[in-house]
């Protein structure tokens, strides 16, 4: 692999990592604060992508579609919380898993009914079209750099919100000891609702930003959901800082693993077996890294209760 290709794949990994963070940040807050396993969080990412693509096509502007899709994703999250999820908070984790898996099936089919099974394409906004020269002979898409910048900016704002505001203090306290927060007079149900809605909006934002570089199709949130769970386990449940660092780590490992391993295996295998084995091992690297990290730090890199 050349230096240029290594740089491109590293940037692709970081860009994928910030998208994972936008999904995982809401998931880790919901899991950490509410002790609620929401397998349907990935469909919020999918709904964000569909809403962004549809509204961008209707308005003729990606930016207008983004601005409208965010409150729409928030509204969808709050509606699901009101209709389904609030009735599951007191149930055991198995009930939550089964119920939210049912929500996945329902919403995937609802998307097929409303938009069809054919993938939707969202054009890249004109202001971010083209590429930027990183080194002689190497151009990198401006839009992918914009995704990286938007993710980093969102991470900084989320850190300020969680670490420097009263609402953030309540969220951190809820992640550490929700019953105690409720005993102190905080409306824990309203806190849960706001955390859930905010997490849904973050996932929707990730879906809108990913739409121009990925196919918008039913079930697109399933793979992202699995990796988002890996992120929150590695980073520490309830920790936004842990989710951010773990998401970047997972994104880089996932991308570089799929790119580097086939080339390395070609040194000992024929091209076709090397490509197949490299793709399989590349997918395994993330889980191997998770196992190694948990062997050293069983609660993740930055567990919420550790401060």
Question: Could you characterize the architecture of this molecule?
Answer:
The chain is mainly alpha-helical. It has one domain (3-306): ABC transporter involved in vitamin B12 uptake, BtuC (Orthogonal Bundle), CATH 1.10.3470. Helices cover 74% and strands 3% of the residues. It has helices at 3-34, 41-59, 62-83, 93-115, 142-164, 166-183, 188-210, 221-235, 240-265, 271-296, and strands spanning 131-135, 138-141. The protein has a two-stranded antiparallel sheet. Strand 1 (131-135) and strand 2 form a beta hairpin. The N and C termini lie far apart (41 Å). One of its GO terms (biological process) is amino acid transport. Keywords: Amino-acid transport, Cell membrane, Membrane, Transmembrane, Transmembrane helix, Transport. Belongs to the binding-protein-dependent transport system permease family. LivHM subfamily. Its main location: membrane.
Strand runs, count:
2
Tally of distinct domains: 1
Derived from helix and strand composition plus strand pairing, the structural class reads mainly alpha
Largest sheet: 2 strands, antiparallel
Please state the second-level CATH architecture: Orthogonal Bundle
Element-by-element helix/strand order: HHHHEEHHHHHH
Mean pLDDT: 86
Q: Reading side by side through the largest sheet, how are the strands ordered? A: 1-2
């Amino acid at each position: 692999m050349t230096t240029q290709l290594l740089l491109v794949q590293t940037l692709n990994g970081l860009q994928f990592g910030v998208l994972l963070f936008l999904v995982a940040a809401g998931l880790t807050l919901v899991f950490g604060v509410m002790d609620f396993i929401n397998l349907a969080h990935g469909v919020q990412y999918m709904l964000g992508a569909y809403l962004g693509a549809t509204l961008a096509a209707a308005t003729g502007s990606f930016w207008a579609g983004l601005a409208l899709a965010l409150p729409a994703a928030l509204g969808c999250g709050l509606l699901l919380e009101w209709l389904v999820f609030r009735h599951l908070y007191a149930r055991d984790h198995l009930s939550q898993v089964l119920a939210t898996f049912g929500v996945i099936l329902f919403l995937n089919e609802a998307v097929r009914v409303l938009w069809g099974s054919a993938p939707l394409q969202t054009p890249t906004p004109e202001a971010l079209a083209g590429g930027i020269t990183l080194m002689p002979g190497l151009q990198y898409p401006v839009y992918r750099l914009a995704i990286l910048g938007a993710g980093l900016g969102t991470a900084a704002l989320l850190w300020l919100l969680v670490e420097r505001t009263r609402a953030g203090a309540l969220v951190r306290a809820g992640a550490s000891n929700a019953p105690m927060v409720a005993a102190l007079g905080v409306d824990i149900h309203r806190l849960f609702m706001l955390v859930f809605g905010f997490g849904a909006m973050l996932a929707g934002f990730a879906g809108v930003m990913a739409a121009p570089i990925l196919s918008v199709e039913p079930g697109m949130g399933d793979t992202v959901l699995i990796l988002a769970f890996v992120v929150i386990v590695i980073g520490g449940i309830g920790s936004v800082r842990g989710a951010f660092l773990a998401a970047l780590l997972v994104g880089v490992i996932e991308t570089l693993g799929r790119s580097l391993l086939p080339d390395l295996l070609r040194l000992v295998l024929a091209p076709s077996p090397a490509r197949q084995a490299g793709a399989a091992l590349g997918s395994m690297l993330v889980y191997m890294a998770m196992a190694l990290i948990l062997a050293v730090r069983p609660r993740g890199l930055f567990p919420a209760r550790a401060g």
